Amino acid sequence: MRKLVRGEGPRCLSLYRHGLHRWSLESPTPPERAQIWEHLRAMQDTRCAYCEADISKHTNAHIEHFRQRDRYRQGTFEWSNLFGSCKRGESCGNFKDRCAPYDHTALIKPDEDNPDDYFIFVSDGTIAPRADLNARLLTRATETLRIFNLDAENGALREMRREAVRRYLDTAEALQQLCLENPDSDCQQFLEEEIQETAKLPFATAIRHTLSA
Fold this sequence. Notes:
The chain is mainly α. It has helices at residues 30-44, 92-96, 135-148, 156-166, 169-181, 187-197, 204-212, and strands at 61-65, 82-86, 119-121, 127-129. The longest helix has 15 residues, at 30-44.
């Protein structure tokens, strides 16, 4: 999960009203859904808003309501309530929608909150709440991990993040060694360039945290 910047929403959403229309296979229409996806990808590129897995193909992605339609019907066609999520059943949007009722304000919303303020992504594929969080922020971090099931011990996401990070471990070690041996070198510039090159990859936050550790 990483910070997202939400831009202006698609005009097609203004054609629909809660109470008059229902979200279904026909509404929004396929062309309108394509328009929604265009705006979602401008915000989050081709990565799931929650786990950062690749969602470049429509077959492995769906338009996700941050607050579920059955619990917040007035948000059905609200642009601010929509994200692009993977279709993985054991995590992210699909998993969240099967959870028992919870306080949505306890969740980290990536277009409003900065996940870097809450989480440390570890090179072994795990995610840990930051050690300096107060009780309220720690609750938000742990609830977000639980509701989206982002750090399940035997889940696929840990292995996927670990594999994504693996190829950058040598680079991270080399950068750390360079900074130790040559404090006046351009290691910070090298680090920033490497982070920039990997910024659009799946699980880029885990890669960035590993390189910066």
